[in-house]
Amino acid sequence: MDTVVNVELGERRYPIHIGAGLLADGPLFRRLVPAAQVVVLTNDVVAPLYLETVAGHFADRRCETLVLPDGEAHKSLATFGEVMGFMLEKRLERGAVLVALGGGVIGDLGGFAAACYQRGIDFLQVPTTLLAQVDSSVGGKTAVNHPLGKNMIGAFHQPVAVVADTATLATLPPREFIAGLAEVIKYGLIRDLPFFAWLEANLDQVLAREPAALAYIIRRSCENKAEVVAADERETGERATLNLGHTFGHAIETARGYGDWLHGEAVGAGMCMAARLSARLGWLDAAALARAEALIARAGLPTTPPADIEAARFRELMSLDKKNVGGRIRLVLLRGLGQAVVTRDYDDAALDALLRGAA
């Protein structure tokens, strides 16, 4: 039996179904997607594993499938155009539903295509990576990357539902699994100290992919994100705290070319940088900093950025972040473990010193 976490957005309220074996649950898929026309978007890694099963649930409907190359490099305007062209060629109507079957790239790209096709069609998120199950599939942020900045072109477009099959994590390569842990740890750092402490005590079980541990971290992460999104759907306040480490991390991804560092790897290093800056400012004590760095390192994530990004280039890329206001870089920093703040009120010299030390 699956667990259901609801994202409370009034009339646009939707469920997150979490459980093992959900991809085989035909009645669930048909209930969530009653449309006569369905397009399943996936990639060439996920397709051989799950596409036949998911598309098979809609055998009594008109179901089109599009398989894209895997990788962050394909989360682009060019690929977005390919998806739009495919739907136009198939003459899909406004009542069609797009099913995004894959990780964060497919979810973000598919959601953006759904937001734009005929000014908006429904879509279902079916995340198959840990990062997508705990974070990117929930909350309606959709986007593509541009050489000048990550996720700078996109739209808020909430899914009709999320179906997270925890069994898909068994086929996830170790590097992808570890990258997803960055977003899990993030929830403990920004707002859920008991969850952070649970991760410290149970990380070995998580790394061993024990089913009970995986079910718990996915459910708790989704509960945290659902609460934040319900309170601040369009990121005007609290939701921005979900970007802990992301301003630094997106700069790393952009500097190195999308795909060289996985998103979660860049966020892991970025969270350490945010914690170190918080400590430089006197906001985070040495013991708390050590705990944050230790958990991120134990998870197998990078704790420092690439050494070849010069401080000036780092700052330049950070200045492109969506959260910035009036030309001032806004950062998510820590006032303590479980206490994140979004601020422009920090010492520039401390940031510059951090970037020089990281370069």
Short description:
By secondary structure, the protein is α/β, with parallel strands linked by helices. Helices cover 46% and strands 19% of the residues.
What does this protein structure show overall?
The protein has 359 residues and is of the alpha/beta class. It folds into 2 domains: 3-171, Rossmann fold, CATH 3.40.50.1970; 188-358, Dehydroquinate synthase-like - alpha domain (Dehydroquinate synthase-like, alpha domain, Up-down Bundle). It has helices spanning 26-32, 47-56, 77-89, 104-116, 130-136, 174-190, 193-207, 211-231, 246-256, 263-280, 286-298, 311-318, 348-358, and strands at residues 3-7, 14-19, 37-43, 62-68, 97-102, 122-127, 141-146, 149-156, 161-165, 331-336, 339-343. Helix 6 (174-190) runs antiparallel to helix 7, helix 9 packs across helix 10 (263-280) and helix 12 crosses helix 13. The model has no long low-confidence stretch (mean pLDDT 95).
Residues in helices, as a percent range: 40-55%
**Overall CATH architecture of the largest domain:** Up-down Bundle
If you average the pLDDT, what whole number results? 95
Strand order of the largest sheet: 1-2-9-6-5-3-4
What is the highest CATH level, the class of the largest domain? Mainly Alpha
Question: Beta-strand percentage?
Answer: 15-25%
Which structural class should the secondary elements be placed in? Answer: alpha/beta
CATH topology category name of the largest domain: Dehydroquinate synthase-like, alpha domain
Terminus-to-terminus distance: 49 Å
Q: H/E element string?
A: EEHEHEHEHEHEEEHHHHHHHEEH
Shape type: globular
The largest sheet, given as strand count, sense and whether it forms a barrel, is: 7 strands, mixed
Number of helices: 13
- Roughly how many Å is the radius of gyration? 20 Å
